[in-house]
Amino acid sequence: MSPATIYDALIVGGSFAGLSAAMPLARAAKKVCVLDSGQPRNRFAEASHGFFAQDGVAPLTLKAAGREKLAAYPTVDFVNDEAVMARHTQDGFLIETLRGEVLRARKLVLAFGVRDHLPDVPGLAERWGGTVLHCPYCHGYEFLNQALGVLCITPMSVHQALLISEWGPTTFFLNGKDMPDAETLSHLKARGVQIESAPIATLEGEAETLDGVRLMDGRLLPLAALYVATRTEMTSLLAEQLGCAMQGGMHGPVIVVDQIGQTSVPGVFAAGDITRSMHNASFAAADGMLAGVAAHRSLVFGPLGM
Ligand SMILES: Cc1cc2nc3c(=O)[nH]c(=O)nc-3n(C[C@H](O)[C@H](O)[C@H](O)COP(=O)(O)OP(=O)(O)OC[C@H]3O[C@@H](n4cnc5c(N)ncnc54)[C@H](O)[C@@H]3O)c2cc1C
């Protein structure tokens, strides 16, 4: 690629959403660049579950397969680097990377994902993606009918505790947070959820496995897995730099997009975890496909993409 290359579309983030967005553009023989820093959110898990026809495949294997399929299209370039700055130009957009590369494109698709803020509980971070988890649809079946825990972080944690009890006997760890109101307690009781109000000292177990939660009062509550509704933040400031409208989501801020992934900034599309509160690889891939098609249509028909 020469420095003068202007891509039809530049995709920031090359995982479920980004690689899916690139495919319809590649299949329309558009010049596409996928810029990716190689840190998908689910890289901490050994297996990814629920993805169509790929249940149980390792996250990085899935991503590599997606890249391999795209690499068959000669108009697709991959740049392994991190976007650090984005701005508008006369004919589209310009991105600067961490290593100092400058990339230009007529359209942008943002698909850079979110990162999780893990609560500061000793022994929790090193089990993230193994026995400390956020989503039972992704990693619940593996712990079916075993002792499960939910850590109280936000008001959403109550909802999580009510849901997790579908998979196994559940304890809701308040860990210093206030006792829920009477109505909430009656819902939790109806689902058989136990409440534990003592603060947590540490999670115990060999390596990634979990034997249980050690409480500050010395008791060890045996547990196979602990669920945590993390707060999320975007991995990049690009959307702010471009002036994309944002709004508060259930776990953290999300980029406002319409039904086809167009942001509030013409020519900038977005897909995946950065645009929604329900986070899942299949949703991200579907969002990416939509955004890729919309970006292509806007190349053909102009900003409205009709
Ligand atoms: C522990 C864990 C386990 C999970 N397990 C499952 C599961 O089993 N099944 C399931 O369906 N979902 C699972 N999920 C959810 C799933 O990981 C996300 O919904 C999905 O990864 C979102 O895809 P995405 O493409 O939006 O973002 P990501 O997959 O996070 O990809 C974003 C990509 O953008 C890159 N990037 C970030 N910033 C920049 C930048 N500035 N410049 C260039 N590149 C950048 C990153 O390196 C990354 O490659 C899990 C999540 C977690 C945290």
TrEMBL record:
The keyword Oxidoreductase applies. GO terms for molecular function: oxidoreductase activity. Keywords: Flavoprotein, Oxidoreductase. InterPro entries: FAD/NAD-bd_sf, FAD/NAD-binding_dom, Ferredoxin-NADP_redctase_2. Residues 7-136, 185-288 form the FAD/NAD(P)-binding domain. It holds the Pfam family Pyr_redox_2. It comes from the Bacteria. PANTHER family: THIOREDOXIN REDUCTASE 1-RELATED-RELATED. This is Thioredoxin reductase.
